[in-house]
Amino acid sequence: MADLLHRRARLAAGAAAGFLLLLPLAACSSSNVDCSGTSCTATLTGDDAKASILGNELAFAGTQDGKATLQLGDQSVSCAEGDSVSAGPLSITCTSVTDDGVEFTAEVG
């Protein structure tokens, strides 16, 4: 009985440790997002493109006059290549804007 309890405790501890190791990866769950620490680089292309970035859901809402529009909840921000904007807790720098997409870096703060 004691061995069974010890084995269950070890399994639970191992599962918890595995979850904690994977937690930073869960902050950026989209395949078009690459994160390192508290900074992510993302590319959103096409209608309704979305990505989860550092716990925030960002959506690409299109481009107009060389500016890309990103949606974070009910907040919209637009940026041209090289511009920096704030959206919620994120500071976003647009690095490339095309007719159908945007590449940007997002950081907390």
Task: Please explain how this structure is put together.
The protein has one helix at residues 2-26; strands at residues 33-36, 39-45, 50-53, 56-64, 67-72, 75-80, 84-87, 90-98, 101-108. The strands form two sheets. The chain has a five-stranded antiparallel β-sheet with strand order 1-2-9-8-7, with no helix packed on it. A four-stranded antiparallel β-sheet has the order 3-4-5-6, with no helix packed on it. The protein has 109 residues and is an alpha+beta fold. Strand 8 and strand 9 form a beta hairpin.
Task: Give the SSE map.
Blueprint: H1 2-26, E1 33-36, E2 39-45, E3 50-53, E4 56-64, E5 67-72, E6 75-80, E7 84-87, E8 90-98, E9 101-108
**Mean of the pLDDT scores?**
81
Radius of gyration: 19 Å
What is the makeup of the main sheet? 5 strands, antiparallel
Indicate the percent of residues in helices: 10-25%
Structural class: alpha+beta
Q: How many domain modules? A: 1
Q: Output the number of helix runs.
A: 1
The portion of residues forming beta strands comes to: over 45%
Protein name: Secreted protein
Signal peptide: 1-26
Keywords: Signal
Compose a concise summary of this entry:
This protein has 109 residues and is α+β, with helices and mostly antiparallel strands. The protein has one helix at residues 2-26; strands at 33-36, 39-45, 50-53, 56-64, 67-72, 75-80, 84-87, 90-98, 101-108.
Name the features.
single chain; 109 residues; alpha+beta; five-stranded antiparallel β-sheet; 1 helix; globular; signal
